[in-house]
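Reader question, answered in our methods column.
A reader sent in the components of a multi-part assembly and asked whether the whole thing could be modeled at once rather than chain by chain. We filled in our standard form and ran it. Here is what they sent:
COMPLEX SIZE: two components
ENTRIES:
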Amino acid sequence: MVDKTQEIRIGIFISGESKHLKKNIDYKALLPRLRKLSGVVTVQVNPGFINPSGIKFLKKNIRQKKLNRVVIAACSPWLYEETWGDALEKAALNRYLLATADLNNYCWTAHRSKKKATSQVENIIKAACRRVENLEAIPRQKTKCSPRVLVIGGGLTGLCVAQGLAASGYPVTLIEESENPGGLVKDLTSFYEDSPLLYEGDRWEPHAIIRDLIEEIKSSSEINFYNRTAVKKVRGQVGNFAADLSSSHKDWSDTFGAIVVATGMKALSPLPSFKIKESPPITLLSKAAPVIESLFKKRNPASQIVFLMDTESEQGVVTTGVVLQLALRAREAGSNVTVLCKNIRVGAPGLEKLYREARSQGVLFIKYQKKPKIKTDDARVTIQVFDEQMKSENVFDYDLLIVAEQFSGDSKELVKLLHLKVDPEQFFQEENVWLYPIKSSRRGIFIAGACREPLTVKQAQEEAAAVASEVDDLLRSGVFIFYSNTASIDEDKCVFCLTCYRVCPHGAIEMDWEEGVAKVSEIACQTCGICAAECPAKAIQLKHYTDEQLDAEVGTPPKLVIFACEQSGLKAAEAAGKLGWNIPPETLTVRLPCAGKVDSALILKSLQQGAERVLVLGCPQENCHYLRGSTRGTKRVNEIKRRLQEAGLDPERVTIAYLTSKDGAKFRKYVEGVRS
Amino acid sequence: MKSKSRSPEKQVLIIGAGIAGITAAIRLARERVNVQIIDKEPVPGGWSATYGCKAADVCVKCSVCVVEDKIEELLKNPLVRFYPKSSLYSVEHHNSRFRARITPANRHVAAAPKAGRRLAPEAHPPLLEKGAATTGTTNSAREIEIGAVLVATGFKPYDALHKGEYGWKLYPNVITGLEAEQMLLQNGELVKPQDNQPPDKVAFIQCVGSRYAQFDTPAQIRTYCSTICCAYALRMANLLTKRENPAEVTVFYIDLQNYGKGFNTLLDSCRDKIRFIRSIPSQIEGNSGQKLQVTYESLEEGKVVNEDFDLVILSIGMEPRDDASLLARMLKLREDEHGFFEPVHPDDSTITGQEGMFMAGACVSPKTIAASILEAEKAAANILKYIGDKKAPEGKRRLRR
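And here is the structure of the entire assembly that came back:
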């Protein structure tokens, strides 16, 4: 609640001396009108408020005129909000008592008439003033965080992460489910034997990397390694995760600042789907190297060998590399080699050359789409396959069938334990471009290595480096300093319905079963406001975007109201400006943290107060910065449409559209579409 | 944010402000290292900033929006100094320091690539105009001293003129994948350049300038896969089929390349909407009207087929920049047979073999945006280790227990 007894003193600062603005805005007419607004103490026009002299000017004015609210109108203001926030704090004013108005798109070319452009600028500054009146100070907070890091999985990625973090001075607990560290890579020697993968000339031994890493980790005083250990429970939030760990001989708990998931992937045998079993003529790719080496020892090695790839989903460069290596090796031994695949994957350095080499050595590649049929007796395998290139059904007899394993994500329990989600192929990390490469939906939990997608050794090491840097960035100072501009729950109104718990994409809502209320972890909340919009009891408010503040900003709206996600819609408006198109007059753009924050009441109220059309702009699905915000927003808009139709109104008055920050052209299309 | 130290040993020069350079710069600056980043273009972002979003209602993870985000973060960071329109004149290495001379970009050296207009992405003009604090001026040559160098000079798009049979530049409705990307950025949709109308029938021709060894001159032999073209073609094809009146899309290909996470999901979702033909067309001819006649060998029918399309997109790949060998000589980098910079370590493609010099991104090998980001993270980690080890480890901040 805003303290109504305190006198509101607003200062308006217009960063408006650029040639476009000067040309299009009639300051002589504008400034007196702004000065008459209630609460406005001063209106200043300055060449810019981002250079040191502008900042100084801003601070001086705040102090001298005893301002307690600031409105800054500038081009692309969100770029400088941090700078201005710092300036406000130096002038002893809370940084959240600032509202900005984006001048960028309102006045350059669209408005031929100076008068119209001026009135448009006046409107957006007025909206900012309405907003700023209701803003509240949000205090700065400090929490200590543990410097300890839990790394789950002692494979290549886990070892590299642990090594990287220990080198920066973080105490690391490294746990591994099996007896020995090293994961899949430690067995790679059997995969590749002596043949160098991808790199000619240099002998490359992945197991040597693992050996060195293990030695380093055993000698490091910062790393505690536990084998045959699993996580049983994880509570708490970033900075202070409390994890229960359990090994074969003891159970214990510890507190960790961050958790790194590097559990690797699982190799699944596709043999059951063909109703065949491992037998002398049938083997899996990971076990094939010794078999092929043994060909060299046979007196009469001439045999028919077939490799089968892509049995379920299409495989990546890792499998292709191994298959090509082994095929060449078998060819060397004098065997006839066939590779059955859907597509050959050569999208990594060196692989195309290897493929060409294999072809020139006489390895036969058959590309299929339909699943081949396999029959076997004890000595030979018969494969019936439809060759897509020759368009012919072929039946071949082979002495040896080598089937490539399918890779899949591992540890379903861990996903649940950490409140994470998996992608359609059961790998960790749900599909969202903002999580790539190594983030998870929860702050402080990172995902690296083959548990998020099948990777080469090189990529796994790159991801490990990225994780070590991110963890360092997070925990470096030992304290989290943050502003609690988060969601907050009114305990009196909360009916404990678990809606917020279910919709929060970041696992930031904790249920207090004793008190019977939901609580928001201020440190884990990523301020998207999805819970606030979904709460059926209206018990949740997102600070800085409360219902009261948004209602005031909308006020008596013009014909078109755009609720724009600040990550996409707002920036796309600017991108549209760069393409030479400006927001038309009689439009109000309301900035929201996410399209998931738009609630039904706000949309209905804007319609009720006079808006003809409401356009909600969010990110495309799986591109939302808050993972499921735009999906939630869509559901809500569809619900409103249904209600409008029931009430006999035009449901098309409310629209939702998706774009990204670069989509200036789409922004224009959507806005023009809504207006016509 | 205060920097760790102003001593030259602790400063880093990044050559090229594409996605790899930007990612490394941000990471280094977050670790409070002073970064100088130079680029021949007036704005940061490189090629990746000229691409458009390919999402319909669901994101296809092309990472183009991530680039935009990173450019913003780069320009906001006070520890990064961006030198636009600059190029490297010389680098000397002595006593664990590099002395680099930066000059205004010589437009003859950095001649606009033939294979596509480069639209200057007017990235945040106000920041560049006004934020003089972060932007260096390069009206004249200047000398800087640094402790480490990151080479992230990127790539050159393949020049489709080499493939005369496809009639690029002859027929307006034959465009390259790069032009299609830029069209997406400009228009938000793919249209026929001739009349700006949305096309009904579109063909993508894959591997134009990749995976090909039958050129006349050895310099044109490309026995590598550019890895990016299947990814962007598939995403664009998907977008075209998601229009209100879906276009009929055909993809002519050799093999579809798995670009990583999300590939199988996207492929499964659009497999039945797109016609995939495993055949590379031999030529394109413009016939009467605006149609393009594509000649290819049909495996289904077992004969050569002529088919009409409205728009043909040539999925061009990546090649080394024209000035890559010049730079390789200046910095004593190894070049591979195609002209990309060759790493000396099989597992770490950021190591150049020169002390204090690292590399990342598409100048090492063709890469997607996501792969460039990861490689740049690795390069930044290596640089931090290098400049941290070199002197004064007490500068490393340790946590109190």
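What stands out: Residues 107-138, 391-401 of chain B have pLDDT under 50 and may be disordered. The longest helix of chain B spans residues 369-390.
Send us your own complexes using the same form.
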